[in-house]
Predict the structure.
Amino acid sequence: MDCTLGAGGHSAGILEASKPDGVVLGIDLDKSALEITRKQLADFGRRLYCRHGTYADLSNHLGAIEWGCVDGIILDLGLSSMQLDTPERGFSFNKEAPLDMRFDTSQETSAADLVNHLEEAELEKILRDFGEEPFSRRIARAIVRQRPIHSTTHLASVVVKAAGTRRKGIHPATRTFQALRIAVNREMEALEKGLREAVKNLCPGGRLAVISFHSLEDRRVKQYFQKESRGCLCPPGQPVCTCNHQAVLRILTKKVIKPSMEEIERNPRARSAKLRAAEKM
Ligand SMILES: C[S@@+](CC[C@H](N)C(=O)[O-])C[C@H]1O[C@@H](n2cnc3c(N)ncnc32)[C@H](O)[C@@H]1O
């Protein structure tokens, strides 16, 4: 199961490797990505099923096509290159576009809604929690003063004025855009539920692989894997276990896997990727 089908790179790889009869269910929140990828991978015929929706509803997607447990699940988190490179989707601060950032364009709330309607304190919290933005307070205040803000470039210029340009390596608006995207698409909630759903729906011996692109996500995946690979979770020193927690995962990546220099040269957007994998016991 490819929970984040995108342009179908992983699904194509899995279908190639599982020839002649391996099957993949690919899901994505982005209807336009599904349409393009369905056409691009048409040669795999009925070996690829595509469904629109969130991986947080993984059980429902499997139920809808009457599949039981699955042998492998991949989550490749965040946004795709296709989305980043389509200016009108509003994910990039380099091109003038409406402040949108929705993976699922049938969803009501966009980034413009958050930027223009949230209280200053709520905006600050989003920037701090989801962007780990050290100037969250200053930026939130500037956003509230400058509203309404309806375009990506307008928001970027407000951030640059508030936070300054003295940052090593990254554009000053990077963290703000990341934070808003995570909030608009409720990415951390989806990850939380998606991990639980994935483990529940793996067959024994089945494998879960998660690729994350920032520390917030990676920390969550690491903690979840650690917790589910342990038996009793009672405080140390408690004489009798009362939690009855049982280990369900065996961690396969003792250390997180990062792309090689050669891969980063070939695909610079992979530079912050971190892969963790585990097997269902
Ligand atoms: C990093 S891209 C995946 C790229 C893909 N592996 C490929 O080979 O092209 C992440 C994809 O996940 C989708 N996505 C994000 N959150 C999702 C969710 N909760 N449920 C389903 N799809 C989601 C995005 O729309 C995007 O297309």
Observations:
- The mean pLDDT is 96.
